Fold:
Amino acid sequence: MAGTDRDRKLIAEGPAIILVEPQLGENIGMVARAMANFGLSELRLVKPRDGWPSDKARSVASKADHVIDGATVFEDLPSAIADLNYVFATTARERDGFKPVRGPVDAARELRTRFTAGEQTGILFGREKYGLFNEEVGLADEIVTFPVNPAFASLNIAQATLLMSYEWMKSGLERETDTAFSGPEITPAPKEQLHGLFAHLEAALDTRGYFRPLAKKPRMVDAVRAVLTRPGFTLAELKVLRGVVSSLDYFSPKEPRGAGYPARKEEADRAIHPEGSSALRETGDE
Structure:
């Protein structure tokens, strides 16, 4: 999904992401990309199997070069977390022990609270195949696990990092439902414009015998109006719909748009502008 804004400053804050014995450079690169997506930049690697630096990691990081360039390598997990005040360990399975367990939403809020208080925090992610060993989980303060399908609970490290990074960024928003951009503000059109559409459409349907049997016309009209009232159309949207109805109502394969001034169009214009229908015809206004 494209959409990087190169003019915006990169946000460099939040928990360190610690990968324990990651195996593939490509996975590390995807982790870096996930981190950059949501404002994280500190990547720590514990004994990466294929060594570091990694061209494969950079090639899939989608220009998250600041994360790749800033990554630090450690020989063991205790060294990687020595300067941190609070650490979460991610796991997909139940562990023995007495550690608190949180979901990603609560874990991110806890990390945000501690970050705001000036603490250094981190999130541990285990090996692609085996995850974290019990003794590694034992070095963390709390466990974070994801509400996944129990029958297929395995996440790769990039997916898991993406989930936690997303929750981290969301925890810092004024409202957790905020988005990066929003749609236009919609102001419903004045009712007189909507009523004009009703009248135009009903006249066109009446001309083509839509209301049959005639005794059911009032109910059918109510149904059409109910459908058109529900969306809260803007003035611009009503103009589009009026143009569509006009094209279907006044023109036909035998008299296509642009071929002339249809009789029904002239009748409609005369009804609206009794004094100006000839002028409209001369200018070709449709």
Q: What stands out?
A: The CA atoms of residues 268 and 277 lie 9 Å apart.
